[in-house]
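Exercise: predict the fold of this chain.
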Amino acid sequence: MPVGAAGGAGPAPYDPWMTDLPSSTTLASMIDRTSDAFVAGCGFLHEPRHQRVGAAMYRILAGGQPASIADIASRAEVTTAEVEEWVGSWPAVFRDDDGAVTGFFGLSVDDGFNHRADVDGMGTAWTWCTYDPLFIARVLGATVRVSSHCPVTGTEVRVTVTSDGVEAVEPAAAVMSMMPPDLASFDDIITTLCHFIWFFADDEAARRWTAENPDTFVVSIQDGFEIGRRMTDAVFDVVLAERP
């Protein structure tokens, strides 16, 4: 069932060409809706111990290595049995034949993904979409240098993001697409959500692409970070408070 589907049909899909509201009002409401839906979809991480396990997985994966259950448990200061139970039931978790976690909610050691993330002081990993590094940098408290390619023009887009915001965007005109996650399924998040969130060389390329992909809309990369900041501050509040 799509996230947010229970209890009614939910808000109508967003039309990027709608003209019945001022664009600033429309965009602000979509940013609110999108960040709120991400928070709601991450309910499995709201418990403090779960947050610590999630953050431990991100830290290990950011080094470019699979995360063993024992390593996760040690870093999160919980038992291996608890980690096994939780990661075995959470959505957006991928594991190898040995049971180690190779991907978790946006971050992977698999270089088959399109978005490279070089994490200062940790290593190189790959993100499932271009939204992921914008919030994972805040979870990690690290600088992340992202390299991706515009799916319309093929232009390389480079973004440097820290826990506090976007530091650099190249080319400067680059933007990104977004899709409210309440229209997707967290049980199949890569296919139903991640495949619709990209960096674009400029607004024109982004709007050409979103016009052909219903329910997507265009935001600045800074606004993408703001969506991620709101999600991270709500979902990983304990982890952020405990970070030195």
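Check your answer against the key: Residues 23-44+108-242 form a domain with the Beta-Lactamase fold (CATH 3.30.450.410).
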